[in-house]
Amino acid sequence: MKFSANLGFLWSELPLTDAIRAAKVAGFDAVECHWPYDTPAEDVALALTDTGLNMLGLNTIRGDLSKGENGLNALPNRMTEARVAIDQAIEYAHITGTANIHAMAGFAQGVEAHDVFCENLTYACAKAAPHGIGIVIEPLNHYDAPGYFLSTTSQAQQIITEVGAPNLKLMFDCYHVQLMEGDITNRLTKLQSIIGHIQFASVPDRSTPDRGELSYDHIFAHLKSLGYAAPLGAEYKPNGPTPPTLDWLTKYKS
Ligand SMILES: O=C(O)C(=O)[C@H](O)CO
Ligand SMILES: [Mg+2]
């Protein structure tokens, strides 16, 4: 199995460039992040070249943090800002060779939000495609993100079909999917053609994959049987330094 360190949570106390180097030393095959924009893209590109790791994903900005915003792409009347954020993410991804951009939907509901989200995704996919960059959308659970526009894989599947862009895929985060819909094994099988990236953490405490109500022994073996070979994103909260939490990595890499 191959694994990607999500540096939004792992080594989050380090500058991003140091976190990339720490992930390499720990034995990860790739990295991904949340919002890297405070670090110059050229510095991140250099750390990636030095370590030989690829950056698999980054997020569009959340918006006004003082108002608790969590993405702009499904917000009616915010299209101009959403597109500036998409352009910013594409530029950063282009410089760093990042594979996918997570276009964050935000807190919104209803038909208008759906239409705006689809329009912004169409824009993002068209602008990202010439650079070979993918756009992913991720359903978030209603415990952590109540009111978030995108909350289920079935809703994501409908949006991906409606937008119809070849570079628009699903970010399947096992943690969120288990909390909202369950049936992880069957969903991975059914949705594999539209999956752009997979993330994992224990449920319900979003910790290491060796605890909680999901068996990652089973899920990782199932992914292997499906022929899924891309690195899986470790997006769990280490609650302290990351190295002491990596027994699971040693286990699955040996
Ligand atoms: O919260 C998650 O699971 C994510 O992957 C997103 O990047 C949003 O932070
Ligand atoms: Mg996630």
Automatic annotation (TrEMBL):
Statement: the UniProt record of this protein carries the keyword Plastid: no
EC id: 5.3.1.22
Pfam families: AP_endonuc_2 (PF01261)
Ranges where the Xylose isomerase-like TIM barrel domain occurs: 20-251
BP GO terms, sorted: glyoxylate metabolic process
The keyword Nucleotide-binding is assigned to this record: no
GO molecular function: hydroxypyruvate isomerase activity
Keywords, alphabetical: Isomerase, Pyruvate
First-tier enzyme category under EC: isomerase
Active site: E138, E235
SUPFAM superfamilies: Xylose isomerase-like (SSF51658)
Assigned protein family: Belongs to the hyi family.
Protein name: Hydroxypyruvate isomerase
Species: Nereida ignava
